[in-house]
Amino acid sequence: METQARGGGPAMVGASSARTAEEQTERAAGGLPGRPAPPQLRCRLGRADLKAVPEARRALRALLRHWGGPGTSDVAELLTSELVTNALVHTDADAVLTATVSTHGLRVEVRDFVARRPRPRAQGTGESTGGRGLVLVQSLADTWGVCMHGVGKSVWFELGAQAA
């Protein structure tokens, strides 16, 4: 798994941050025993169906209605739109969006079923209106990364509860 900190930072291999084993277990289990699982959004996105982008934003907005500070939901919606658009435009395959709210913040993951790794474009002075999605994710997310699977990959980002 490759991760990067806000603003790019050096790429790391391994865990997404210096969380304790207990925190990682809590995240993996979806909560603690005896407590309800954290709120989660999960939806399948049809191949090349760009109508899924605004639908994903609306669903995420509903999930985040009571989470985070001012502007946090807007940042989350923007970054989610970028990841969903990338998955649908650049892969010619279905994708799955998962967003989870926990005490640690928000984690959004878009999984597609194509092995090609995404690469942020170098920031240039060109007038192209495309190709800036991962640059936005890199700039605005607290952390983000790519996790390769046997079939395909997940591109994800996290925002802390106080992020804005």
Task: Explain the overall architecture.
The chain has one domain: Histidine kinase-like ATPase, C-terminal domain (Heat Shock Protein 90). 30% of the residues lie in helices and 27% in strands. The chain has helices at 21-29, 52-63, 72-91, 133-140; strands spanning 2-5, 8-13, 40-45, 95-102, 105-112, 143-148, 153-159. Strand 6 and strand 7 form a beta hairpin.
Topology:
Blueprint: E1 2-5, E2 8-13, H1 21-29, E3 40-45, H2 52-63, H3 72-91, E4 95-102, E5 105-112, H4 133-140, E6 143-148, E7 153-159
Antiparallel strand pairs: 1-2, 1-6, 3-4, 4-5, 5-7, 6-7
Keywords:
alpha+beta, 27% strand, 7-stranded antiparallel sheet, Heat Shock Protein 90, globular, 30% helix, 164 residues
Shape: globular
Strand numbers in spatial order across the main sheet: 2-1-6-7-5-4-3
What is the fourth-level CATH superfamily?
Histidine kinase-like ATPase, C-terminal domain
- Give the averaged pLDDT, no decimals: 78
What CATH architecture would you give?
2-Layer Sandwich
